[in-house]
Amino acid sequence: MPDEPNPAAADPDAAPRTLTPAERIAPSRHDPLVAAATRPVGGPLGEHAAVGRHWFWSPQRVGLGLALLALVVCWFGKASCIQQYTDSSGAGQLDWRSGRPFVAMCYSDVVPLYNAEKLDDPHTFPYVSSWQEDSQTSPDGTRYMEYPVVTGLFQWVNAKLAAGWLSVADSGWLPGALPVAVYFNITAFWLALAWLVTVWATGRTMKRRPWDAVLVAISPLVLVHAFTNFDAIAAACTATGILAWSRRRPRIAGVLFGIGVAAKLYPLLMVGVLFLLCLRAGKLRAWRRTALFTVLTWLVVNLPFIFIATRGWWEFFRLNTLRPMDPDSLYNAISYVTGWAGFDGMLHKGQNPAVLNTVVAVLFLVCVAGIGYVALTAPRRPRLGQLAFLAVAAFLLTNKVWSPQYSLWLVPLAVLAIPRWRLLLGWMTLDALVWVPRMFYYLGIDHKGLPEGWFLGAVVLRDLAVAGLCVLVVREIYRPRTDLIRLSGDDDPAGGVLAGARDQLRMRGFRRHDRSVS
């Protein structure tokens, strides 16, 4: 097999060489960090190595194997929060004494939600059943399941599986434990499977760069947040939807995006990104199919609950409207530094936080307009991964809520957008480390925790890192000769009908970029 080009050393003004279909980009040959990491297992891939000849260890299987190891590490990290102790009456209790979730940094929403969402009650059903709770966000104290339909049903099914497990355990056929511990382990199993699907789909989408899926597999964010909440479901739907689009299956892509939107709203951004790219390439027919099937799938999942349990179904949207700024948001950092609580003041008066919601909406729309400008004025049509990363990053940076596990959304998109190993591992490590000051901030200063300023400082560094990645992605969009994907000879591995398509619409920007056109 001929030697592969070295993108890192390529002349940015030289025309990229088109690789043959058998050629793959091996990061161990081009990235110093990866080359150093491979030394314990034999060093970088040799010039005359027979790539793709091993009977079992393909890049895909290596990535999945590493993902399994990472998920096991994550489970052990969360396991401290499902330990139990025996109280004075001899009953088993969940051991969250002395701030264990924060000291051990094992906190997971899955554990408290088992009781908070009444999943421990065998007579409840999501969106239909309600309960009373003292809450400023509910005028009469009535609460319902607060997650989108797919995520809510996912929790309920796992609760039923846990009840079935415990029933069999009572007869001696299975090991027993606290119901919440069994529920957590069952949930973790499905979330792990969802992340394995994400790794698989990303690797299949990358084509010439299958090893880049290892970044999704061993991401430090996976080590910390794979089981913090249920976001791996939406990530898997998004990754497989992009894979289906790359294989020119717009209807299947729409179905997968629709399921993802029914689990978490952010996959809807993929439909908007595809609209911009298809508008420029004159491929709106394929986009209409994807958009139609996205909407139809979402309706099929949601309509039964809209008609049967309208108020319960609306709970997710209602609570998101009333929700104050999250501790992890830039708005909270601004409020802390300036002392201005105007963003959040209206909530404490029993009204909707209209000021904050308006600011969030305006800033996001400005970012959307900017992304649209980039998509339509770049000298060469941006790749799907590039624009998708920009859209989701803009959504997170401008949103009033950035729960720590939301960063998982960016991981596969970042690998598709800018597969630079050192850069991405640096950002993901920094993002994952925000978990440490977050946990010790919640522990409280009275219990030897950290003051809020330390935590918010880490949040700002995280946001600056994501913003820096966005700047670099935009730079590569306007200078496609610096794009590692296009240096390898590909137009857009995830592009599907867009790959290699001629532009039908291109706006003239404020500057000319003729020297950057490939």
From TrEMBL:
Amino acid composition bias (Low complexity), ranges on this chain: 1-16
Alphabetized UniProt keyword annotations: Cell membrane, Membrane, Transferase, Transmembrane, Transmembrane helix
Main location class: membrane
GO molecular function, one term: hexosyltransferase activity
Topology of the protein relative to the lipid bilayer: Multi-pass membrane protein
Provenance organism: Amycolatopsis panacis
Subcellular location(s) per record: Cell membrane
Protein family membership: Belongs to the glycosyltransferase 87 family.
Region (Disordered): 1-31
Bilayer-spanning residue ranges: 62-85, 180-201, 213-246, 252-279, 291-309, 354-378, 423-442, 454-474
Pfam family, one: GT87
Protein name: DUF2029 domain-containing protein
One GO term describing the cellular component: plasma membrane
